[in-house]
Amino acid sequence: MSLRKVPLLYPARFLFIALALLLLAGCQMQPPEPPDEDKAAIDRMLVMIDERLDVAPLVAQAKWNSGAPIEAPEREAQILDQVSEDAEAAGVDEDFARRFFEKQFEASKQIQRRLHHQWLQEGRSTFADPPDLAEEVRPVLDRLTPQLIESLADIERIAGVEGSGRYLERRAAELIQDDFDGEPRDVSIQPLVERLAR
Fold it and tell me: What is the rounded distance in angstroms from the CA atom of residue 83 to the CA atom of residue 142?
C-alpha cells in the first residue's frame, strides 16, 4: 500500500497564523506612551536642563583662570533658599524643587571637575578670553531658574501618567548632550525619574 504525501498547505497555514498571533501580541505589549501634551512638557524640561549644563564649561573656564574653587556652598544655599520661596509661590513641592536644583548643581560640578582634571593633565595655561561669571553666566542661570520651577509644576502634574518615566529616560539620552559618559545627565534627571511613573 502506497502512502500518500501529506501536502504542506496545513503546516504552512498554521505557521502563518502563529506568526500573525505573535505579531499581534507584540503590538499589544508595547508599553504605554504619555499624551503628546505631557511629552512636550517633559521635552521642555530636558531642553532646559541641557541648556543649564551647557553653562558648566564656561563656569569651569572662569574658575580655572581665577583659581576660584568649584564648590560654592554659600551661593548654592542662597539659590536654594530662593528656589524654596519661588517653588512655594508656584505651588511646587519645596523639597522636590530643592532636591532637583541640588542635583543640577552636582551635575554641573561633575563637568567642571572633569574639565579641570583634563586641563591639569594637559598642563593648560589660563584662557585668553574667559567668560565673565557675573555678566555672561549668571544671567543665563537666573533666567533658567524660574522657568525650571515652572516646568517642575508640569512634572508634578504628570507624575502619575503611565509611561512618563520611560519617556523621560529615553528622551534625556537624545536631548541632554554632555561631553562625558552620561553621568552628569543621569544625576540631573534623577529627581524626575524618581517622580514619574514608569
Answer: 11
Alpha carbon separation from 41 to 104, 132, 152, 169 (Å, rounded): 18, 32, 9, 14
> Taking a C-beta distance cutoff of 8 angstroms, is the pair 6, 138 a contact?
no
Chain mean position to CA 118: 24
Closest C-alpha to 64, from 140, 139, 124 = 124
Residue with cell 553653562: 55
Q: Which of 191, 179, 111 is nearest to 148 (CA)?
A: 191
All cell numbers assigned to 72? 560654592
Q: Which three cell numbers stand for residue 55?
A: 553653562
On whether the CB atoms of residues 66 and 189 are closer than 8 A, the answer is no
Contacts of 80 (CB under 8 A, 6+ apart): 98, 101, 102
pLDDT greater than 80 at residue 16: no
pLDDT in tens, 79-125: 999 999 999 999 999 999 999 999 999 999 999 999 999 999 999 99
Quick one: 65 exposed, middle or buried, by C-beta within 10 A (0-12, 13-18, 19+)? middle
